[in-house]
Amino acid sequence: MAGENGNVIEHKAYARVGLLGNPSDVYYGRTISFSLGNFWASVRLQPSKELVIVPHPTHDLVQFESLSHMVNRLQAEGYYGGVRLLMAICKVFHNYCRDENISLREGNFTLSYDTNIPRQTGLSGSSAIVCAALSCLLDFYNVRHLIKVEVRPNLILNAEKELGIVAGLQDRVAQVYGGLVYMDFSKKYMEELGHGNYTPMDITILPPLYLVYAENPSDSGKVHSTVRQRWLDGDEFIISSMDEVANIALEGRAALLAKDYGKLVTLMNRNFDLRRSMFGDNALGALNIKMIEVARRVGAASKFTGSGGAAVVFCPDGPSQVELLEDAYHKAGFVIEPVKVIPSLLNDIDLKSISSK
């Protein structure tokens, strides 16, 4: 919803699922991701006399019952709230427009947000808040037509980098575009364009998928461990493994287009196995590994949606296997629900701003 001349503007950005190829997006690789309708963040912009960023009553809590309550809260959820994310995207947006000679009209606003994306589940909750806020700013300043769709994920990522959040472009692309997107982050594209080559796909080619996560993820591990440095140092095992992960997305695109779901099973499982071999069990965490193994014990394909905390699962044998899967996950203490895929979020103005390749 968008408006001008004093109207309230509100936008949603959805959680995302990395289906194939992650985490190769930060290693000049390829991925396939989609926008997950089960969870979202929303940002509301209302014109106001002064510029105000409104703390969320739950996620930006600054009043506690006691010192131990505050410490327990920080240990469980860290120092993370949405206010700093909103401030960071405002700064990045302003500086980008200044550098690109995009003039911004006078006027202030009040930004507030809400989110139901579970924390620490690898579903891109932080970037969803930033993405929704960016969409509000594009409409408030009426510059949607001036900032290309392909560039917007970079702005979201840069806002998070301001705060020391380490991530790649994949999540932000899925959230900006919506729907199902094949992404190629080859070095050629990244160096020449400053971003990847993004190709939307028809969401109806996806089979039924399931989302699994822990309600209280206490064992998320340190997923990125030393892999990044080893890759930079030219470690042959990491380089060849990451190349194979990237090729999984390429093969997965062909498999989905052909609706070869048997191949999808193989690729999803291989994607996880490669991640595990590179990062190691200590980095992944016992709870995350259990999440994958529960699915495999009933013959389902499973892999992380991101860097851990949630998994995407496919049952090639249909409803009877789904029943076994649901029973196994409930007994293991996990939440399982059918995946809802959100179609493309791009409007006519957005589509016109996409560069012709």
Secondary structure layout:
Layout: E1 9-20, E2 30-48, E3 52-53, H1 67-77, H2 83-99, E4 108-115, H3 125-140, H4 152-162, H5 170-177, E5 180-184, H6 187-193, E6 197-201, E7 210-214, H7 227-232, H8 236-257, H9 261-279, H10 281-284, H11 286-297, E8 301-304, E9 310-314, H12 319-332, E10 334-338, H13 348-353
Parallel strand pairs: 3-4
Antiparallel strand pairs: 1-2, 2-4, 2-5, 5-6, 7-9, 7-10, 8-9
What features would you describe in this structure?
It comes from Coffea arabica. There is one protein chain. This protein is α+β, with helices and mostly antiparallel strands and 357 residues long. 43% of the residues lie in helices and 20% in strands. The protein contains 13 helices and 10 strands. Strands 1, 2, 3, 4, 5 and 6 form a 6-stranded mixed β-sheet that branches. Strands 8-9-7-10 form a 4-stranded antiparallel β-sheet. Strand 8 and strand 9 form a beta hairpin. Helix 2 (83-99) packs across helix 3 and helix 4 (152-162) crosses helix 5 (170-177). The relative contact order is 0.17.
What ranges have pLDDT less than 50 throughout 5 or more consecutive residues?
A: 219-224
What is the architecture of the largest domain at the second tier of CATH?
2-Layer Sandwich
Structural class: alpha+beta
Strand content: 15-25%
Largest sheet: 6 strands, mixed
Number of strands: 10
CATH class placement of the largest domain: Alpha Beta
Task: Assign the CATH topology of the largest domain.
Answer: Ribosomal Protein S5, domain 2
Question: What order do the helices and strands follow?
Answer: EEEHHEHHHEHEEHHHHHEEHEH
Tally of individual domains: 2
The rounded distance between the terminal residues' Cα atoms is 30 Å
The chain-level mean pLDDT equals 91
| Overall shape | globular
Q: How helix-rich are the residues, as a percent range?
A: 40-55%
* Total helical elements: 13
